[in-house]
Amino acid sequence: xxxxxxxxxxxxxxxxxxxxxxxxxxxxxxxxxxxxxxxxxxxxxxxxxxxxxxxxxxxxxxxxxxxxxxxxxxxxxxxxxxxxxxxxxxxxxxxxxxxxxxxxxxxxxxxxxxxxxxxxxxxxxxxxxxxxxxxxxxxxxxxxxxxxxxxxxxxxxxxxxxxxxxxxxxxxxxxxxxxxxxxxxxxxxxxxxxxxxxxxxxxxxxxxxxxxxxxxxxxxxxxxxxxxxxxxxxxxxxxxxxxxxxxxxxxxx
Length: 253
Hints:
Elements: E1 2-7, E2 10-12, E3 34-36, H1 38-52, E4 56-65, H2 69-79, E5 83-88, H3 91-95, H4 99-112, E6 117-121, H5 132-140, E7 144-153, E8 158-164, E9 167-173, E10 177-181, H6 193-199, E11 204-208, H7 240-249
Parallel strand pairs: 1-4, 1-6, 4-5, 5-11, 6-10, 7-10
Antiparallel strand pairs: 2-3, 7-8, 8-9
């Protein structure tokens, strides 16, 4: 049976209104509610379902980030993951951590933990990079099934239905493989109180990127983070002629 490694990221909660820092170096995170990236919740749910169907023997949740990332890992454990690994990244290194770094960490842990399947969310809702799964697959030289809306185990490996611009694409991959979860893959379960209590007793191992031989030096420099332009209010015009003249005034026609 397969061993599944699941990546989970602590992000600003989807319901929070994002505020840009005055110096435009990033967004305000202090005192702001955080939670597990929604696409990663779907990834955890899929891994746990694999275990429930006896397709997986163990589910290992991994998160890279500050001490608070342990709360995200405990949520994954409460959802049904067996154990967790916290790769602690703090301060300036965390501020500049990029998908390439996370991919290197996941690739190294996949080898160390002898994982057969890596599942991550298709993207994080904070940076929207949509790169980690693809980079992890490249580093491991494993096949990838990104934007998965359905995953089925076969004797030969996996059959994955992907959401693409033109509709749905079905691919077959061998195992080991990397999967990124799309929105319609499943409906994540809520962590029940008994499972939250059980999660406190599950193993949570702490390590650093240095322990894994991963250099966190940034490859990309963020020049500026800015709010999108404020949308101007619309107006009601009495007739088509007025509409045309207003469009001409605005240089639209």
